[in-house]
C-alpha cells in the first residue's frame, strides 16, 4: 500500500499537467471563450514571479515564523476586507437551485411555510435540505442584527471564507510551511472570495469552509494538540458530506494516513479507528439530514406526498451526456435540458429510473470504448480547466445585469459574468493564475518526497476526479475541495524551484521555532519541505 500511495502524487501531477496543457493549447471552454493571449500572458507572469520569488518567499517565511498566529490573522483579515468589498459588486438576480433555496429560506423566515413547489423541489433534491437548514439558521441569527434574508445568507458564505483563510494558513504553519501561508491565503481570496459566484448563496463555499476546518482540526490532532481535535475534524467532515456528497473524497483520501497511523498506534488500533470513523460518518450524515428535515419542516412523510427523490441513475445519465455542441462551449457530463424535462414530467420513480438507464445505455453505447475514453479525458479537462469555476454558467446567470444603480452598476461590469470587462480582462487573468497554480502544483508534486499529508491530499483530489468523471459535473464542483488543492500547493510548491538555498533552509528552521510558539510542539524533523509528525 505504501508503494501505491507513493505514486498517488505523481499520478495527480501528470493529470494536472495535462489539464493545464489542454487549457493553454486546446481549451475545453465552459461558459465563454477566454482571450487566449491574455491567458498565456497571465500564466507566464505568475510562473516567472514564482520562479524568481525565492528571496521574497524566504522573507515571508521568516515574517510568518516570528509571529505565526498574528500572520495568519493578518492574511485572514485582509482577505476578508477584499471579499466584503467585492460582494455587492457581484450581486445579480441569480436563478437555478440557489434561487429555490433562497425562496425557501425567505418563506421560512417570514413564517409562511414552504409552497407546494418548494416542497416538490426538496423532495426531488433532498441533498439540499441541510443547506436550507444552514442558511435558515444563518438568516435567523442575521435577522436579530437587522439583516435582510439575502444579506444573512451571504453572511454565512463570508464567514465560511474567513474560516477557509484562517484554517488554510494555520494548517500550513502547523505543517512547517510558513512561507506558503500568505500566498495560499491570497490564492483562496482570489479564486474563491473574489469569484463572481461569491454573491450567490449556495453549498459550495460552506462546504469548502467545512473541508478546510476538517483539515485544520485533523492536522492539529495529528501534531499533538489533543484528542478532542479528532472529534472536531470528524464533525466538520460529517457536515461537509451532508452538504456535498462528494466531499466524502476527503474521508477516502485520509486513508493515505493509515500506514503512518499504524506505525504510531499499531495496526489493530489503526484499523479500529478507520472503522469507527466510517461508521460515525454514515450515522452522522443520516442524522444531519434527519435533523435538517425537521428543522425546515420537511419531514420525509411530507416530501413523499409531493414526489420521490431523483434516482442515482439520473445523475449518471447527466454525467454521460455530451452536448456535441459545435460552438466553442461544448459541455461534457453536465446538465441536460432534454433529460431533465423528461424526468420533471414523470412522477413514477420506477419510470424515472428506467428513463435514466436507457439514456445512460444510449449515450455510452453510441461512443464505444475509444469514444468513451476520449469523452472521459475531455470531461476531466473541461471540469478542471476553468479558473472561474464556471461562476455564472448556471441557468440565465451569464446574461443577468448587475443590481447596483448608476456608476456602481458600471463598476459591476468588472465583476459579473455578463460584463464585457469581466470576460475580456478579469476572467482571463484569473484563468492564467489558475493554470499557473496547476503547473506549479504539478511540478511540486512530481519532485516532492513521500509524505503522508501530500499523499492524503493527492488521493483526495484523485477520488474527487474519479467521482466527477462518472457523475454530473461542473467546474464549480471543484470549489468544495479547493482548500485541499491549495494546501497541497502550499506543501509542495517549494519543490518546483530548482535547488535549495541556504536562506530557504534557515527559513524552515525559523519556521520550526514559530510552530513551537503557536502549537507548543517541539521542532520536528522534516521530510522534504514539511515536518514529520
From TrEMBL:
Q: Which domain of life is it from?
A: Bacteria
- Provide the alphabetized UniProt keywords: Membrane, Transmembrane, Transmembrane helix
The segments labelled Disordered in the record are 502-533
Transmembrane segment boundaries: 7-26, 32-51, 71-92, 154-173, 179-198, 205-223, 229-258, 270-292, 426-446, 453-471, 477-494
In Swiss-Prot or TrEMBL terms, this protein is called Glycosyltransferase RgtA/B/C/D-like domain-containing protein
Protein's organism: Ornithinimicrobium pratense
Q: What is the lineage of its organism?
A: Bacteria, Bacillati, Actinomycetota, Actinomycetes, Micrococcales
Amino acid at each position: 500500500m505504501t508503494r501505491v500511495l507513493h505514486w498517488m502524487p505523481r499520478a495527480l501531477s501528470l493529470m494536472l499537467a495535462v489539464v493545464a496543457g489542454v487549457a493553454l493549447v486546446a481549451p475545453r471552454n465552459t461558459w465563454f471563450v477566454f482571450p487566449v493571449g491574455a491567458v498565456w500572458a497571465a500564466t507566464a507572469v505568475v510562473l516567472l514571479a514564482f520562479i524568481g520569488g525565492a528571496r521574497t518567499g524566504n522573507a515571508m517565511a521568516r515574517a510568518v515564523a516570528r509571529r505565526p498566529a498574528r500572520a495568519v490573522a493578518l492574511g485572514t483579515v485582509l482577505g476578508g476586507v477584499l471579499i466584503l468589498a467585492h460582494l455587492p459588486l457581484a450581486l445579480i438576480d441569480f436563478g437555478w437551485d440557489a434561487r429555490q433555496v433562497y425562496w425557501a429560506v425567505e418563506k421560512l423566515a417570514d413564517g409562511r411555510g414552504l409552497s407546494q413547489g418548494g416542497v416538490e423541489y426538496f423532495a426531488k433534491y433532498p441533498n439540499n435540505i441541510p443547506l436550507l437548514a444552514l442558511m435558515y439558521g444563518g438568516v435567523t441569527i442575521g435577522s436579530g442584527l437587522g439583516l435582510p434574508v439575502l444579506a444573512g445568507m451571504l453572511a454565512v458564505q463570508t464567514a465560511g471564507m474567513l474560516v477557509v483563510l484562517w484554517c488554510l494558513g494555520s494548517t500550513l504553519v502547523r505543517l512547517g510551511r510558513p512561507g506558503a501561508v500568505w500566498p495560499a491565503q491570497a490564492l483562496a481570496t482570489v479564486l474563491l472570495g473574489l469569484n463572481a459566484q461569491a454573491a450567490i448563496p449556495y453549498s459550495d463555499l460552506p462546504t469548502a469552509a467545512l473541508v478546510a476546518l476538517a483539515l485544520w482540526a485533523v492536522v492539529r490532532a495529528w501534531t499533538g494538540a489533543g484528542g478532542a481535535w479528532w472529534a472536531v475534524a470528524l464533525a466538520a467532515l460529517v457536515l461537509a458530506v451532508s452538504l456535498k456528497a462528494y466531499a466524502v473524497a476527503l474521508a477516502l483520501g485520509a486513508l493515505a494516513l493509515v500506514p503512518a497511523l499504524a506505525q504510531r498506534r499499531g495496526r489493530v488500533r489503526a484499523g479500529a479507528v478507520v472503522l469507527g470513523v466510517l461508521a460515525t460518518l454514515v450515522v452522522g450524515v443520516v442524522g444531519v439530514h434527519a435533523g435538517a428535515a425537521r428543522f425546515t419542516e420537511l419531514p420525509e412523510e411530507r416530501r413523499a406526498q409531493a414526489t420521490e427523490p431523483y434516482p442515482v441513475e439520473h445523475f449518471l445519465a447527466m454525467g454521460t451526456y455530451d452536448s456535441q455542441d459545435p460552438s466553442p462551449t461544448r459541455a461534457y457530463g453536465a446538465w441536460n435540458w432534454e433529460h431533465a424535462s423528461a424526468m420533471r414530467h414523470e412522477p413514477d420513480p420506477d419510470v424515472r429510473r428506467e428513463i435514466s438507464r436507457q439514456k445512460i445505455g444510449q449515450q455510452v453505447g453510441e461512443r464505444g470504448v475509444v469514444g468513451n475514453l476520449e469523452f472521459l479525458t475531455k470531461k476531466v479537462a473541461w471540469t478542471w480547466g476553468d479558473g472561474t469555476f464556471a461562476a455564472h454558467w448556471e441557468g440565465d446567470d451569464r446574461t443577468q445585469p448587475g443590481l447596483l444603480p448608476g456608476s456602481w452598476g458600471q463598476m459591476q461590469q468588472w465583476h459579473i459574468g455578463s460584463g464585457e470587462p469581466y470576460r475580456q480582462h478579469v476572467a482571463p487573468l484569473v484563468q492564467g493564475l489558475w493554470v499557473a497554480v496547476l503547473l506549479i502544483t504539478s511540478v511540486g508534486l512530481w519532485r516532492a518526497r513521500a509524505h503522508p499529508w501530500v499523499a492524503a491530499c493527492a488521493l483526495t483530489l484523485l477520488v474527487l476526479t474519479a467521482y466527477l468523471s462518472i457523475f454530473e459535473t461542473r467546474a464549480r464542483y471543484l470549489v468544495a475541495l479547493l482548500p485541499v488543492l491549495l494546501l497541497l500547493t502550499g506543501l509542495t510548491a517549494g519543490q518546483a524551484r530548482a535547488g535549495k538555498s541556504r536562506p530557504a533552509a534557515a527559513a524552515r528552521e525559523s519556521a520550526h521555532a514559530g510552530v513551537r510558539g503557536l502549537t507548543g510542539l517541539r521542532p520536528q524533523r522534516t521530510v522534504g519541505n514539511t515536518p514529520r509528525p
